[in-house]
Structure formats: structure tokens, C-alpha cells
Amino acid sequence: MKKLSLSVILLGAVLVNAQEQEKGTQIEDVIIVGNRNAKRTKLETPVPVDVINIEKLQKSAPQTTVQDLLNYVIPSFNSVRQSASDGTEHIDPVTLRGMGPDQVLVLINGKRRHTTSLVNYQNTVGNGSVGTDLSTIPVIAIDRIEVLRDGAAAQYGSDAIAGVVNIILKKDIGASATASYGISGRNDGETYQAGINYGSSLGKKDGYVNLSLQLSHRGKTTRTQNHDLDIFGSNFAYEFADDPVAARAEDDRIIKERGLTRDDFNFQIGDAQIRQAQLFFNSEYPLSDSFKLYSFGGFSIKEGKGFGFRRLPGETDNVVAAIYPNGFQPVLGSQVYDFSYAVGARYNVNNWLFDLSNTFGSNTFNYNVDHTNNASLGTKSPTSFYAGAHSFLQNTINLDVSKSINQFNVAFGGEFRFEQYQIKSGDEASYTRYDINGNPAVPGSEVEGNGGSQSFIGFSPDNALKKSRHSAAVYADVSYDLAKKLNIDLAGRFENYSDFGNTLNGKLAVRYEFIKDYAIRAAVGTGFRAPSLQQQYFNNSYADISTSGLGIVTKGIFRNDSDAARALGFDKLKQETSVNASAGFTLKPANRLFITVDGYWIRVKDRIVITSNIEDPRLAQYNVESGRFFANAIDTETKGVDVVVTYDWKLGGGNLNISLAGNYTETRITDFHFPENLVPSQDEYFGPDQVNIIETLSPKTKASLGLNYAVGKFNFMVRNTYFGQVIRDGYPFGKVQSFSPKVVTDVSVGYDITKSINLTIGANNVFDVFPDRQIYENSYYGVFKYAPVQMGTLGNYFFGRLNFNF
What we know:
Blueprint: H1 6-11, E1 17-20, E2 31-34, E3 48-53, H2 54-60, H3 66-71, E4 77-79, E5 94-96, E6 104-108, E7 111-112, E8 142-148, H4 153-156, E9 163-169, E10 174-184, E11 191-201, E12 208-218, H5 244-257, E13 273-286, E14 291-307, E15 331-349, E16 352-370, E17 384-405, E18 408-424, H6 428-431, E19 465-482, E20 486-497, E21 501-515, E22 518-529, H7 533-537, E23 540-545, E24 552-558, H8 563-568, E25 576-590, E26 593-610, E27 627-651, E28 654-672, H9 682-686, H10 688-695, E29 701-711, E30 714-723, E31 726-729, E32 736-739, E33 742-752, E34 757-764, E35 797-805
Parallel strand pairs: 1-3, 6-9, 24-27
Antiparallel strand pairs: 1-2, 3-8, 4-5, 6-7, 8-9, 10-11, 10-35, 11-12, 12-13, 13-14, 14-15, 15-16, 16-17, 17-18, 18-19, 19-20, 20-21, 21-22, 22-25, 23-24, 25-26, 26-27, 27-28, 28-29, 29-30, 30-33, 31-32, 33-34, 34-35
Family: Belongs to the TonB-dependent receptor family.
Protein name: Iron complex outermembrane recepter protein
GO cellular component, one term: cell outer membrane
């Protein structure tokens, strides 16, 4: 009860079963323990959680970030890098059990983590959602990660519809360090990472301070080179030319005359370049045996460099030919600052545990656009622009109380949370359209070319805003254990938001062991997710492919409370509501063999999404081709099953750990909610491409088989991960394409050079498996050779890592 996970308990009924790793087993060794009640042991809690020992996992795994590590060990967890998708290219959206990124709550040491300020709106996974950037947390600072795979809004409040990710920071005494290098089989995407962790005792009794510093660099990758483009012609691929061979030869001649190469015309599509520095701390100071102070937090700065659609020489509305005679591909640079801290005190009197804490977090995302132009300025146009920023901050105050009484454990408490969202405008030239005299254009003035910085139009003063809200909550939960055979958890939570009102939720979970080591478990509960401030107030103009096939045009996203939204009849956003149910069993049929099977069903009403592009004459005054709006537009139903089997086998003087885990998830839209004053077609309101993102863009089936063998000073790991079929709908200008299932193989070999130094070498995707090539109809003039679906487009990746313990 004295561990940091106590704060998880005090926040509410944690209702978890963990798949924890025993001492002496390997990284794939996932078994079941309980952490809701100190009296519970293995196989004794009502719902499933994966508990991942990060230090052991990172030692031999090729992946280097939190989201990538979890993506390969938890089948119901998905994270895929995106390409040419503005800010989403710099912050990977993550999902759990087929739900959205904003339906997963992230905690650190049991305290609510703030979300990013970024809204995903580029038709990627999680479109219209606001998630948490797991990459801001350095891997070297983490002891373990608990992934609760069950709805938990009755315990934690908003966002916990799909589950909870709880990151537990290290509190070790001593020092460790790691240094790694990796590169893809195509000699790009170089990865450097170095980290050091140092822990020291603090005070006279059980106090500690643990510090972590991590530096990392990931190079860009290029996964398509458009050698099929008629560079100086009509912007159509050679296959559409009357004489493709002659057209290509003529382009080669002109390129040579100008002292250029075909690389000057290639589209860069692949992973963005990311550089990052992170500093984290975790501490506790005992003033007495019963009174302790604690604090943790950290700072992360991330700089990214991504790439937009290439502007071709023939696009006179977008390209200043005197500056870029051969067209250009814009570069989107990001600077993301993430800061967090928590301070609190725990007091134990007569076995009553009190925890008072304050947790603060902020995320700021700055945009810089380079190698671009404002076409309306002609030759006077800058080629680099500051395009503005958005930020989000959150402050949460918690008071948590708990006490164990015989077979009962009682917990209750309260929470007050303040949130603020801000958009800052960029350089004037990044968002303004000018007339031929260089003045901001007004209706009727003569203009040449589109305004704003191409690829990412800057935020204007009309976009700029600062909005805030607050919420207050009270909760209580009771758990009951009878002779380690029957476990019952009951929880309830009431919450009030200043911007939309009240919500009341509850949960009941039961586990019954009918035969020793054989148990059934089930849970049912209601939940909610409050509309984020980002969804309520994000607005901008952006460049995209025209729905009418006219090239790249300007479209708009409008605030939910804007004049445009009111004119079209959109209602004020309200909370999503959900009902969760799960049932399964746990068994231990033989020594060191553990099996869990859990089925689940999640219904979400009034789910918040971003609409398709709505073309309406009332939007013409905003100088956009079409507009998109956030709305409680759909109801969804998700059902699935998780299976985990682990076995430890003493073999040949060593230990072989076998782990088989699989997930099947299916989500479907059950209803649409159209505004009363707007009667578009369904395709225009929430079209096939948006339905595709919800229902079929992520694998319905995912599984992994891991073999980890440790003998003497050696450790051998082989892991196969199966990514099921996905479907991509290129509507409105493409076709439906199915991407066949793929299997990715990771391998590594580790050797203990000394008791303190370990060397590991290996590979991710050693057989160089890619998603299916994207069909031409879903590309942009042949670009996007591979779509970033399933496991992404990195290909094989080889790494070496040194680990030090002092």
C-alpha cells in the first residue's frame, strides 16, 4: 500500500488484473496479479490489465519510444506513424480496443496526464480526436506500464471509455544508462538515443529522488520517389502521356541542362525527422513514518520536420515560378514543448490513508513552414513563415481517502480540474491573401495566386483565442474479498463541467474462483467523455486536395460556436456517453502456464467526430471551398475479445518464456445525427472515408507470438506480430482498397559483457515486410507508394544497444 501505485488506488476503484512479470522471467513473461487491494494475489481481480516491465522490454526490443514498445506487445493497442499529415506527422495517435485516441486516459504514477494541444484532422487514424503524446515521456524514466483494458470513467472520469494507461516512474537507487543506434535497410531513418537514470536516497527513511535525461534523434525516411511524373508537362503521370518513353526522355534532357537531378522533383513521403530532449524526475520525502511528501514531473522539447504535398510547376495559383521554377515540396517544422509536475502529501493515521495532490501539465505546439511561398505576393514572397501555435494546459487537484476494514476496502475523494486552450496567430504573410499591389486583398481587388503559406496556412487573428473551463467531481468505491474466492468492486462518480453540465456514472465488477486457479470475471459500467476544449474551439484554414478534382485548394474547420456553425444548424457539443460490459476467465492449468480470455462490448452514444467537407453556399464568404465541423454526429458499437497465454519452460540450463497474445475488435456505426437545419447527403456529412476511419482503417485482428530464451550470459528473442487486414477508402477522389494481412518478425541477441554492461543487437521487421502498395487512384499523382497503415512504412530496421548498470 506504500508504493506509488497507491495513488491509483486512491483515485477510485482501479478494478484491475495485471499481467505482471515475475522475478527471473523474461520480457515476454506476462502473468496475472492484482493491484487493487493489498490482500489480493494472482488471479484475484475482476478485469484485465497488462503490466509491462519497460526496463526488461527495452533492453532487447528494437523499438525506442513508449508507443512503439506497446504497439508490439499489447495486441489491443495500436500506434502507426503518419505521413504528410501536418501536426499528426509529429505526434503519433494511439488507440486501445479499436476506440479513439481521446477515449484512452493516460496517468503517470496514478495522476491524470494532460493531453496534447493538437487536433488530428488530416483523415488519419483518430481523425477529429485529441490524444496524449506518449513520446514526451522518456523510456529510461519508466519502471513499468499498466494498461487497463476496460472502461473506467466511473473511477477516473472523462476519457477512460476504452481503458487507462498508467505509467509508473522509476524510484531506483543507483545509476543506469543506455545508448543505441539504428538504421533502416534503406540507409535512412537513422536513430540515435542516449539516456541516463540516477537515483539517490533522500532523508533518513525510504526517501528517494530519481532523475532521468534522454536525448534522441530519428532521421526522416523516404518511401516513394515519383519517377513517373511528367515534370514539365501537364502534371499527369507518364502512363497518361501519348508517348511515355519520349516524355520521360525529354524531361531527363531538360533536367540535365538545368544542372538538376530527378531528386529535385521527388516527393518525400515517409517518417518525419524528430529530435527530442527529455528531463524527468520522481521523488518522495518522508517527514515521519506516517507523513510523506512526493513530487514528480518533467520537461520535453521535440523538434520535427515533416513534408507536405509537392507543389508542381504547373500550379500557377500555388507556385511562384520565379522562385521555384520546378515547383517545391513544403517543409513543416514543429517545436513542441511539454511540461508537467505533481506535488502531494500522503498521511496515514489509524490505517486511514489521505492523499492530497496538485498535478499540472501543459503542451505547446509551434508551427514553422519552410521551402514554400505565399503565391499572392509573387516574387516578394518569403520562403519561410512562422505559422502560429496552439497550447493546452491542465491543473488537477485531488483529495483521496481510503481504508481497509476486514474484507472491505473503502475509497472516496474529490477532484477539481481547470483547463485552458489557446491559439496564437502567425506571421501576417502566413495567412493573408494579397492583391497585386501587395496590400491585404478585399472583395473586388485584383489578386494573383492563393494566399498564405503553402502546405500549412498560418493561424490568423480571427483564429486566435483563449478559452477555459473547470470541472469538479466526487467519487466513492467499495471492494469486497471473501476468502480469496469472491471479489466484488463497486464504484460511482459524479462530475460537473462548467461548459455542459453534470454526469453520473457507475461500475460493478465481480470475480469468482469456482475451482482453485480457475476463475470467471465480469464487469458492467457506464462512462462518458467530455468534449475537449480543442474540439470545441479549434479553427483554421488548410490546404487539401479539392473534392472536385481541381488540385490543391483551401478548406476550413469552423468552431462549434461560430456563425458558420450556427447558420448550418450545428448544436453545441455535449459529452459522449457509453456503456461497457466485459466477461472472461482466468486459469492456471499447470505450473507456470497462465491463460486469460476476455470479451468486451462498448456502446458509445453521441460520439464526437469531425465531419466530412460540407459544401454550402453560406460558406463562400469565408473564402473556402468547403467546411468541416466537430459534432456529436454518430453512435458506435465495439465488440471484441482478448486472449493471452504465457508459459515458462526450464530448458537446457536456461529459461524459455513463450507468450501468445491476440485481439479481435470490430467497431461499427449504428446511427447518424444530422443537424436539423442542414440536410446534406450522408457522403457530404460523414462520408465513406470517415466511416472507413472509424470501422476499418485499423486492423480488426492483431496477434503476437514471442519466444525469449535466456541462458548463461546470452538472451535470445524472436517475436512475430500479425497485423490483420485493413481497408482504406479513397473517397471522394479514390477507390476502396484492401490491404492484406502482414506478419512482422523482430529478433535480437543480448550478451552480458560484464555484470554491469550488456550489448544487444537485432532487427525490427527483419524480413522487410511492407503494407501493400497503394493503388494509383488513391494517390496524389502517383505519390504514396505505400500507405502508412498497419505497421507503417519503415521496412527492416537494424539496431545495436549498450546498457549499463552502476
